[in-house]
């Protein structure tokens, strides 16, 4: 391996820059030329390549987002487009590609690699922590911390006005963020995609809290497939139980911000191990966390979405907020 490329694809997440920095510096350490591909697969197709040196990734470890930008690229679903991408990389003498992204990006990478016999390594970057075969994805910890800080602030207002708040957190169909935020903020309840909303149980919990003198109730809502589902829950609570609530959708604030220590640490390890995987010809693998350690797993095992929802976490959140 003399020259490698790397890109970010899909949604951005805090810690991507730490992985980029680790890729560039590990490659240079091993006398490999690292090339940044801007704006994901779309940028690849447009030939947006930049050779990187050690200082080009200086002072980025603390920055959220990704300095090489990311994108969604519908054309990459077509075989002929993926063939063109391989040709463009080969023309640049790039011999291996590192893809930082979620399960969608990995599906694209898997097809691209097998159809064109092009070495690929994945790094899981998404705040949703929803990729099969890894216990952790870069950005999750920072997103949780951001959401916790927001909920703490909302609690101040909720307590001052004796209000019920529905706070909607990101995570698509993954309940990871919602579960952890609920436990860490002492939320009165949590609504996750896997479990049907039990309005009676929610209302009973709120009323129980009020009768024992609670000044506020916070219910964490996992966004599920569609952002804004909290409004329907709000409507039902009002119409069926005469409980008035406020909705706060945290949205994209959860995606930004300076990466936490955990995200910096894991992303740095993943960037390093990804380059080493290319050097050692451990192609078509993904840097994952298994039993708390950064290691490699086959790319084919990381293509599915997973929801690390645990019934006992839900119970914990509920027991601790009685
Ligand atoms: P994420 O990687 O965060 O899950 P997306 O699902 O939006 O984000 O995927 C990012 C990009 O990866 C898509 O815009 C597309 O270019 C590529 N991609 C996703 N799924 C596939 C697929 N099945 N085949 C080919 N390319 C795909």
Query: What is the H-and-E element order?
Result: EHEHEHEHEHEHEHEHEHEEH
- Estimate what percentage of residues fall within beta strands: 15-25%
Segments where pLDDT lies below 50 for 5+ residues?
none
SS content category: alpha/beta
What is the CA–CA distance across the termini? Answer: 58 Å
What is the 3D form?
A: elongated
**Beta-strand segment tally:** 11
Summarize the amount of helix as a percent range: 40-55%
Q: What compounds sit in this structure?
A: adenosine-5'-diphosphate
Might you state the CATH topology name of the largest domain?
A: Rossmann fold
Under CATH at level 1, the class of the largest domain stands as Alpha Beta
Taking all Cα atoms into account, the compactness measure Rg is 22 Å
**Strand line-up in the sheet with most strands:** 3-2-1-4-5-10-11
Condensed summary:
The chain has ten helices and eleven strands.
Describe the overall structure.
It is elongated, with a radius of gyration of 22 Å. The longest helix is centred in the middle third of the chain and has 22 residues, at 140-161. The strands form 2 sheets. It has a 7-stranded mixed sheet with strand order 3-2-1-4-5-10-11, sandwiched between helices. Strands 7-8-6-9 form a 4-stranded parallel sheet, with helices on both faces. It is an alpha/beta fold and 322 residues long. Helix 1 packs parallel to helix 9 (261-279), helix 3 crosses helix 4 and helix 6 packs parallel to helix 10. The chain has 10 helices and 11 strands. The termini are far apart. The chain is 41% helix and 18% strand. Adenosine-5'-diphosphate (ADP) binds next to helix 4.
